[in-house]
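TA notes, week 10

Several of you asked for a full example with nothing omitted. So below is the full record: structure tokens for the whole chain, then the designed sequence directly under it. When grading your own attempts, check the secondary structure regions first.
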């Protein structure tokens, strides 16, 4: 049994991000996380994450063979056969896609909108994983469409109308994913020269062990991340409370500090960069949790996410951060 390698293939350590995305959408639409249906939605988000990420690992296999930073991955290292991975992931994708359709038809007050969102999620995901991820400077667009559509799907699982909070929730995670793929994702691959990288296109490079950004890369990252923070602040304006205001100010300051670190010229140490990117993703997701979810659900989501992330990384990779 290759349990550890299977979860490495599926990048299970980052599943809390998808669980948070989907459960927040379900809550924003009027759902209750602490119900049987809410817990099933959270479980479904986990399953979608591991099979979608596994599909990305399989699709990137030929590229990863040439990437020195990916030689420890189970497919690249030969610990898992390519055919086994393909069969496992394809079976899982068929199962979770079928479940997603059934959930929309059984639970959603607006199944037509839930299903339309789900179709866009699948199209965007397959376009990113199978076509654009490693071959185009614009792969981040397909990823953003996919993630935003999945957010929309989770919202319509419980919502009957599109509210201002629903619009802002979907907009926030669109911008968050644009930054995550369109800046952090390309930054992670900045040392790889044989595949399209938008940061390369904008002039950034690693030269003699140092990361050298450009004005264009800085402007791109700042505009996207600041737009996301403004959306979050508008959500606070619609749902004001002193604890939430304090939380959002403190977390936003943390995001800005980390953003400054990610944008600055510096000595390039990939392991350190992965830690910084992980912290940025955690803070970006958690910024809006208390705005959308009730206090108890917020605490559960955030504590579960941090504890799971740390323990799963230690179990899978022997580190406190994802070695991907």
């Amino acid at each position: 049994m290759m349990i550890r390698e299977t979860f490495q293939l599926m990048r299970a350590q980052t599943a809390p991000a998808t669980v948070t995305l989907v459960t927040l959408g379900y809550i924003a639409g009027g759902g209750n996380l602490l119900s049987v249906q809410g817990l099933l939605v959270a479980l479904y988000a986990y399953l979608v994450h591991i099979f979608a990420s596994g599909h990305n690992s399989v699709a990137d296999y030929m590229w990863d063979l040439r990437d020195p930073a990916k030689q420890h991955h189970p497919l690249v290292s030969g610990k898992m056969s390519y055919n086994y991975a393909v069969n496992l992931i394809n079976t899982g994708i068929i199962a979770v896609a079928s479940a997603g359709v059934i959930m929309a038809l059984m639970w959603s007050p607006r199944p037509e909108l839930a299903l339309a969102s789900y179709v866009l999620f699948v199209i965007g995901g397959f376009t990113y994983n199978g076509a654009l991820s490693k071959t185009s400077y614009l792969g981040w667009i397909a990823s953003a469409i996919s993630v935003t559509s999945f957010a929309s799907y989770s919202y319509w699982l419980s919502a009957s109308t599109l509210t201002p909070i629903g619009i802002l929730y979907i907009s926030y995670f669109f911008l968050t994913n644009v930054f995550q793929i369109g800046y952090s994702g390309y930054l992670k691959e900045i040392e790889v020269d044989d595949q399209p990288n938008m940061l390369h296109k904008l002039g950034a490079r690693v030269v003699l062990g140092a990361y050298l950004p450009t004005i264009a890369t800085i402007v791109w990252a700042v505009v996207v991340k600041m737009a996301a923070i403004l959306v979050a602040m508008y959500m606070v304006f619609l749902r004001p409370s002193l604890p939430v205001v304090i939380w959002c100010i403190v977390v936003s300051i943390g995001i800005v500090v980390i953003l400054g670190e990610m944008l600055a010229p510096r000595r390039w140490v990939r392991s350190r960069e992965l830690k910084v990117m992980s912290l940025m993703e955690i803070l970006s997701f958690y910024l809006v949790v208390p705005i959308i979810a009730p206090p108890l659900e917020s605490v559960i989501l955030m504590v579960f996410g941090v504890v799971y992330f740390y323990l799963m990384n230690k179990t899978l990779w022997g580190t406190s951060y994802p070695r991907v």
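The first helix runs from residue 3 to 9. Use that as a sanity check on your answer.
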